[in-house]
Prior knowledge:
Chain A: This is Alpha-D-ribose 1-methylphosphonate 5-triphosphate synthase subunit PhnH. Chain A: InterPro entries: PhnH-like_sp, Phosphonate_metab_PhnH. Chain A: Pfam families: PhnH. Chain C: Pfam families: PhnI (PF05861). Chain C: This is Alpha-D-ribose 1-methylphosphonate 5-triphosphate synthase subunit PhnI. The structure holds three protein chains of three kinds. Chain A contains six helices and nine strands. By secondary structure, chain A is α/β, with parallel strands linked by helices. Chain A has one domain (9-193): Rossmann fold. Chain A is globular and about 45 Å long. Chain A starts with 8 loop residues before the first helix and ends with a strand. Chain B is an alpha/beta fold. In chain B, 25% of the residues lie in helices and 17% in strands. Chain B has helices spanning 15-30, 51-60, 78-90, 139-148, 152-165, 269-277, and strands at residues 36-37, 66-71, 94-95, 104-108, 121-125, 176-178, 182-184, 202-207, 212-216, 222-224, 251-255, 262-266. In chain B, the strands form three sheets. A seven-stranded mixed beta sheet of chain B has the order 1-9-8-5-4-2-3. In chain B, strands 7-6-10 form a three-stranded antiparallel beta sheet, with no helix packed on it. A two-stranded antiparallel ribbon of chain B has the order 11-12. Chain C is α+β, with helices and mostly antiparallel strands. Chain C has two domains: 13-83, no CATH class; 96-122 and 144-327, no CATH class. A four-stranded antiparallel beta sheet of chain C has the order 1-2-3-4. The longest helix of chain C is centred in the last third of the chain and has 34 residues, at 337-370. Chains in contact: A-B, B-C.
Amino acid sequence: xxxxxxxxxxxxxxxxxxxxxxxxxxxxRAAMECMAxxxxxxxxxxxxxxxxxxVAASVLLLTLCDPETPVHLAGDHDAGPVRDWITFHTGAPLxxxxxxxxxxxxxxxxxxxxxxxxxxxxxxxxxxxxIVETDRLEAEGAVLTGPGIRxxxxxxxxxxxxxxxxxxxxxxxxxxxxxxxxRVAALPRTTKVR
Amino acid sequence: MDGxxxxxxxxxxxxxxxxxxxxxxxxxxxxxxxxxxxxxxxxPMPYGWGTGGVQVSAAVMVPEDRFKVIDxxxxxxxxxxxIRKFFEKTAGVAVTERTGEATVIQTxxxxxxxxxxxxxxxxxxxxxPEPLRFLEPxxxxxxxxxxxxxxxxxxxxxxxxxxxxxxxxxxxxxxxxVEGRYVMDPSPIPKFDNPKMEMAAVQLFGAGREQRxxxxxxxxxxxxxxxxxxxxxxxxADHPCDLCGAEDSYLDEVIVDDAGGRMFVCSxxxxxxTRQANGHRGALAAEDAA
Amino acid sequence: MYVAVxxxxxxxxxxxxxxxxxxxxxxxxxxxxVAQIREQLALAVNRVMAxxxxxxxxxxxxxxxxxxxxxxxxxxxxxAYRTTLPRFGYSEPVDTGAMACDRRxxxxxxxxxxxxxxxxxxxxxxxxxxxxxxxxxxxxxxAVMAEPLxxxxxxxxxxxxxEGLIQVEEVPEDDTPRDLTxxxxxxxxxxxxxxxxxxxxxxxxxxxxxxxTQRGYGRNHPFVGELRIGTVPVEVDLPELGFAVEVGEVVxxxxxTVNQFVGSKTEPAQFTRGYGLVFGQTERKAISMALVDRAxxxxxxxxxxxxxxxxxxxxxxxxxxNIQATGFLEHIKLPHYVDFQSELELIRKLRREAGTSSSAxxxxxxxxxxx
Lengths: 194, 290, 371
C-alpha cells in the first residue's frame, strides 16, 4: 500500500479517531441507539474522511469496518482519496455491490438497491448495511412504525416505496443508516414506512 | 476511566473483536429474536458463567457508563460481584446497585422489578440460546426450522405438557414469539418476568459458548407462547415479601430453620432494599431495621 | 430474623487467598520453577500448548504452575491470554516433509527411506514405578545419539501415492481455510475446520471418539502409516519484503493413517487417509485425531453413515472443546435459585390441581361404572 504512488498520504492519514477505544465506543453506542430506535437522530464525532464523506459516515466506517467487512463505494464516494482513506484507516476491501457488507453513497448513487445482499433464510444477518449520505436529516416526513418505536416516529427519507418493498422482505432485507454532516439515523428492515 | 488497568485495552477486548460483536448487535436489532452467529472469544471467566453477556457489555460500554450486574436478581451474589469487578478493572467504569441509576445492566436469570427506561441497556447472559434445542439437538435442523418458521415441534411439546400435567410445565426460559416471527429463548428468567420484555430499554442477549447474539429493540412485540384455552400465566409465589411487604415482586423462598420454617423475600435486592429504606415492612422484618 | 446473604466480595477475596496458599503447598518444600515444569513436565506443557492453541512453552509451564497441575485449567489460562493478543498475520503452511525428526515410525512398512527411529518414547518401557527417581539428584545415563536423520525424510504415504494405491488429497490452491478461533462455527464445517477443532480438542474426548471407531462404531481399519515428531520452521510472508522469513520453529507431531476400504459407490478400491497434526510431542492425540478425521470423512468417501458418534460432525465438533465443556458443566455450581423457585411454584401448583382433578376423574369413573 505504501509503495502505491497514487496514494495521497497527507489526506489519507488524517481524520482517524484520536482515541480509538473511546471514540469508537461512543460512536457505536449512538449508532446502536439509532438502529434500536428507528428515526432517532444522534450526533457522531471524532473522525473526518476526505470529501464527499460526511463526519457521520466517516465515523460509522471507522467504528464498524475492518479487513473483515467488504465495502462498496457508489457514485462520487468512489473517489481516490476516499478509497485511500478507508484502506488506510480500516483495511476494508473495496468491492462491487453484490459482495458488500457495507455500501456507501447518496441514495441516487446506490440505485438500484436490489443489488445488495438481503441475507438468506438461514442467515438473515448476512445482509448489507447501507450508509446513505443525505443533504438533510430531520425527524419529519415519512411515518415510521415497528420495533423500537413506541407509537410512531418520523424521518426525512429519500423515498418511501423502496423501504416499503424492503420491509416486505422481512426477515430478509438490507438495513440503512442515513448520514448528514454529524447527524445519523437508521432504518432497519423491520420498520414499516408510510 | 481513572481506575482502568492500563495493561488491557478499554473493556478488555481488542478493537477488532469489539467491531465484530458490534456488527452482530446491529444485525440482531435489525432482525429481532434471530440469533446472530458471532466469533465468541475465550474470556478470562469460564464459558457458562456469563462470557456472552460480558462480551456484549464490553462492546456497548462507554467510559461514562454506570454499570450494574445482577445474578438471580441480586447484586451481591458471587458471580455478579466477579463480573462487576472485571469491568471496574478493565474499563474503569462506575458501578452501581441502583437499577434506576444504571445505564448498562448485565443480568443472569432476572429482569429488575423497577421499570427500565430509554437510555438503559439490559444485557442478558444466555446459556442455551436455541429455544428448540431440547426438542431437536441438531443445530443444522433447528436453523432450518427458524428459516421455514416451522415451530410445530414447540407447540406439540407445550400441548403434551397440558395433556400430561394439565398445564404448561415450563417455569423459566419460557419461549416467546418476537414480532410474530422468531421463537426466542428469553434466557432462564422466571416466566413471571416475560411480560416485562416489552420495555423502553434496549435488550441484548449474549451466548458466548454457543456463539450467538440476539436482541430486542425497545417496544418490540414479545408474546409468550400459549393456547387459547390455556393462556400464559406469569404466576409467582402467592405471598408478599416478608422483608419489604411487596406484593408485586418475584420472591425467593428461604429456609430459615431446621424445622423447615421458611420465608419469602424479593429476589431483586435493590428493589427490596429501596422499599425498606422508604419505610415499607414485611411480616418478618426486624422492627428496628432502617 | 433473616439476613440476606451478603459479603460475596469478601468471600471471593478470602477464597483467592486460600487458593494461593494451597497452590504453594508446604513451604518446607522448595518451590517449583517455571523452567523446571517446562523441562521436566514437558508432555504436560505440550498438551497445554496444543489444546490452548498457543505455542509458548514458558507460558504453558507458567499456566501449569498457576493451575496447580490442573491441565484443563492451564489450557483455559492460555486460551484467555490468547484472546488479548493482536493478530498480525498468518504463517505459510508448515512443511512437515522438511521436519527435523526426533521420532519417525511406520507400522505399514518394515523399513522405508529414512528408517524407523524410535526416539524418546514410552512405548517399550515396562511400566514399573522407578523408585530410583524418588531419590533425587541421580543423573540419568547419557543417551547414545545415532546419526541425525537426513534433513528431508519422505512421507511413507508417498510410496503408496506413487502407485495410486491411496486416495489423492486434493489441496485447494487458493482456498485459505477459515479460522475457527476468529469466526463462528458453521455447519457443515468442512475438513479444514474439523481438523482445527480436533487439534485443539480435548485429548480425552478425541481419544474416546477414536477408540469407539476401533471398537466398531464407524470402524475404518486404521494402520499408522507414519508417525513423526520433530521440529519444523515457521515462516511468515512479509509483503514489504516480497518473500517469507523464518520467525521461529515449533515441535509438531504428525500422524497419517492408512485406512482400508473396498469399493464404495464413488471411489475405486484404494486406501484412504486420516490425518492428525498437533503441537508438541503429543502422539496419543495425533493418532486419535487421525482416526476421528477419517471417520468424519464418510460422506466425502461415499461411505454409509452408520450412525456412529464419531461420524457425526456436529456431535464431535460441538463437544470436543474442553474449555467450553468444563465451563458449562461447572456453571451448574452457580446459584440457580430463581429458576428453581419457579419450578417449585409450578410443581406445587400442578400437584394442587392434580389433587382436585384426580378426584373428579374418580367421580366420572364411578358414574360410568354405575351406568
